[in-house]
């Protein structure tokens, strides 16, 4: 029993050689391990907390599965009769609700200051979506914020928009549909082009030349061979009619092509009614007499009804974060439909699940039951890149900060080398008295284990303490005018944190093992020293 306790007893003796509370060597070694474990525990918990908080916010308002109808090569089609499909989706196991989905961009204006903003249409009759937005509201800086948008022009904006425009609850802003700019752009592009007679002069000249040639008479009808028909029809249709030309010019070309389409078909070509040749020539000649200014005026008058700007009232401000991409504005579904130019239609169906983490299997089941042409996008797919970015950031932080513990272990190894050199005469005495090499090794390994255990324990405890009182620490830093975790950037009043017991245990055990290994190396060399030389202090 005495031989087994000899190494541990001597290890304790070496840790406080002067019978003080702690020796300087012990304090330095423990502090290095403590700081390494402390930093890793705090950083791991904060990174895990940020990931958890972002996901919870994201899942509070976003569809867990988004269904879109894309029958033609992946191009999404607006849905007018979506309610029947939504009712069928609700019957699928695991589905909590299914409602309309709209997301688009608009131009917002506040006191003649404008900027583009993304918006998301919310079905205000879906309580889970409303509750998700309500949980994000910033009641501290924007007291009275509400998510009760109803069906009126009442909106909830992000704190980023609120700060940029100095607007809060009760403020008003104008919203301009981005679809208006698309129509204006289309008109601008058409009216900027030269008239057809100038832009496609060579094509028209060739067609007129073919029309001027005598056509073969067959009874009371006129015959035109297939080669000549193709030389007239194909250039006009493919090179002019299918291009973006002015509507009056397109109408002239359409009448010309209809005359050809109405001709009778024979093996070698087409049979036209008498006078068709003159009719085609006269129609084509109308292109030479078009008035560009009148046509452009007609086009401008013929613009589809523009979506008038909507004046909306801000009833809530939610905490936005630069860490996650969220809509600038939440608005009721009818207002979103108007601004998106959908006129009662929707872009897709928003499906919310009882368990969001079952989105993938539920999406497979939905695809199995829905007709061909539907496609499903889960929140995991949508948040996948960002989630992977957070995970990579965590891994990089672990990798970088783990070097603190590794440096502490090397420092302990250096200290233990120094201790073994200082104690070489005592080591020589122990060997002369019959101490086995294993006992000598255990003396110093026990020191490393004790230091590693105490450092890991204190580091873990202090790390948990920092996490518990992180809000108070932030408040102290803010009093000195320094805030490394600004709310305006992160979107959090208090730095989020989430404790993962297994990760904390791994860090503590890793620190203990590294310290034990660090102590073993100098202990091994000390055990191999010559007793006689050690006693001569060589």
Automatic annotation (TrEMBL):
UniProt subcellular location: Cell membrane
Residues of the signal peptide: none
Principal location class: membrane
ABC3 transporter permease C-terminal domain location: 399-529
Record-annotated membrane-spanning stretches: 21-48, 395-419, 440-467, 504-526
Domain MacB-like periplasmic core, residue spans: 26-175
Protein family per UniProt: Belongs to the ABC-4 integral membrane protein family. LolC/E subfamily.
Native source organism of the sequence: Luteolibacter arcticus
Keywords for the protein's UniProt record, in alphabetical order: Cell membrane, Membrane, Transmembrane, Transmembrane helix
Transport found in the keyword field: no
InterPro entries associated with the record: ABC3_permease_C, Lipoprotein-release_system, MacB_PCD
Annotated membrane topology: Multi-pass membrane protein
Name this protein carries in UniProt: ABC transporter permease
């Amino acid at each position: 029993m005495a031989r087994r306790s000899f190494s541990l007893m001597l290890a304790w003796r070496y840790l406080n050689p002067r019978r003080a509370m702690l020796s300087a060597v012990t304090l330095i070694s423990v502090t290095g391990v403590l700081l390494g474990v402390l930093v890793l525990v705090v950083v791991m918990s904060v990174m895990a907390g940020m990931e958890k908080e972002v996901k919870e916010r994201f899942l509070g308002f976003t569809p867990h599965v988004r269904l879109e109808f894309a029958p033609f090569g992946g191009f999404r089609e607006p849905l007018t009769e979506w309610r029947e499909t939504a009712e069928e989706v609700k019957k699928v196991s695991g589905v909590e609700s299914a409602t309309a989905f709209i997301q688009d961009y608009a131009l917002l204006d506040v006191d003649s200051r404008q900027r583009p903003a993304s918006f998301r249409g919310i079905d205000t009759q879906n309580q889970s979506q409303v509750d998700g937005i309500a949980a994000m509201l910033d009641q501290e800086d924007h007291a009275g914020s509400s998510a009760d948008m109803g069906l009126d022009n009442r909106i909830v904006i992000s704190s980023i928009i609120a700060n940029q425009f100095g607007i809060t609850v009760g403020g008003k802003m104008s919203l301009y549909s981005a679809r208006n700019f698309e129509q204006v752009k289309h008109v601008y592009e058409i009216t900027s082009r030269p008239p057809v007679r100038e832009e496609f002069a060579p094509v028209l000249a060739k067609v007129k030349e073919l029309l001027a040639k005598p056509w073969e008479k067959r009874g009371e009808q006129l015959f035109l061979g297939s080669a000549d028909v193709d030389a007239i029809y194909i250039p006009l249709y493919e090179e002019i009619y299918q291009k973006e030309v002015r509507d009056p010019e397109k109408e002239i070309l359409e009448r010309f092509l209809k005359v050809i389409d109405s001709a009778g078909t024979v093996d070698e070509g087409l049979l036209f009614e008498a006078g068709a040749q003159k009719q085609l020539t006269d129609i084509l000649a109308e292109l030479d007499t078009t008035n560009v200014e009148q046509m452009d005026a007609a086009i401008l008058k013929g613009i589809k009804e523009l979506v008038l700007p909507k004046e909306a009232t801000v009833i809530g401000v939610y905490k936005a974060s630069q860490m996650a991409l969220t809509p600038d504005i939440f608005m009721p579904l009818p207002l979103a439909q108007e601004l998106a130019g959908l006129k009662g239609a929707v872009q897709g169906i928003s499906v919310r699940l009882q368990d969001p983490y079952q989105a993938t299997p539920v999406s497979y089941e939905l695809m199995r039951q829905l007709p061909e042409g539907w496609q499903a996008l889960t929140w995991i797919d949508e948040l996948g890149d960002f989630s992977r970015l957070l995970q990579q950031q965590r891994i990089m932080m672990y990798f970088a900060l783990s070097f603190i513990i590794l440096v502490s272990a090397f420092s302990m190894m250096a200290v233990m080398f120094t201790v073994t050199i200082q104690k070489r005469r005592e080591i020589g005495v122990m060997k002369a008295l019959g101490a086995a090499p294993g006992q000598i090794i255990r003396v110093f390994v026990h020191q490393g284990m004790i230091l590693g255990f105490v450092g890991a324990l204190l580091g873990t405890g202090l790390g948990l303490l920092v996490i518990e009182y992180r809000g108070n620490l932030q408040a102290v830093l803010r009093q000195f005018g320094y805030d490394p975790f600004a709310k305006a950037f992160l979107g959090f009043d208090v730095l989020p944190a989430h404790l993962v017991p297994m990760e904390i245990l791994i860090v503590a055990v890793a620190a203990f093992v590294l310290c034990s290994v660090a102590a073993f190396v100098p202990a091994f060399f000390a055990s191999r020293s010559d007793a006689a030389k050690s006693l001569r202090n060589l």
